[in-house]
Amino acid sequence: MTLNLLGAGRSTIASTLVWFFWSLANNPNVENKILAELKSNPPASPQAHLYSEEEVNRLMYLHAAVLETLRLYPPSPINHKWAKEADTLPSGHRVRANTRVFFSVYSMARMEGTWGKDCEEFRPERWITEKGGIRLVPSHQFVTFNGGPRSCLGKEVSLIQLKMVAAAVLGRYKIQVVEGHSASFAVSTVLHMEHGLPVMISRRSA
């Protein structure tokens, strides 16, 4: 089970981190808010910039920024299900038994009826409640990790890994995307960035 979780999450986590840093490069106000949160919540070993699971779970804005990345750039942009028996979808469409039904996770995450008129914008605030916690979105709306009894077993592990890496990198380094680079999607089962993300890295001053 452990090896399966690590193997399944390797490429999806790498893909998400690429889109995360790309999103921050295009939204410096979000990066500044994350940096302010990191400064207000330093890890027990500040010199190493390594956060424990308990420490990283206190970083609500970082958590929201990671979820927003997963919404706009789901690692698995297309998913499908098999109909065990004939059924009728909420839309009224009849589905025959043994039919494979595909759905676009990418498109569902950009539906104005679900996410509002700013659905195309990278806005972590949409995930934060008035009390400062993380807003819970039903899994049938936010389907990046699948939904219902078929939800991804590695969801929580993936979120912790993403936040730990993001906090460690942002706390020590400034990431700048090479000027002129434009992002496009690579044709793959995982939403990779075509040609990767060329960046310049510089150490942050203390």
From TrEMBL:
Pfam families: p450
Keyword Electron transport part of the UniProt annotation: no
Example GO BP: lipid metabolic process
Any GO molecular function: monooxygenase activity
Binding residues for heme: C152
UniProt KW Oxidoreductase keyword: yes
Cofactor(s) the record lists: heme
Signal peptide: none
Keywords, alphabetical: Heme, Iron, Metal-binding, Monooxygenase, Oxidoreductase
Family: Belongs to the cytochrome P450 family.
Name assigned to this protein: Cytochrome P450
Organism per entry: Linum tenue
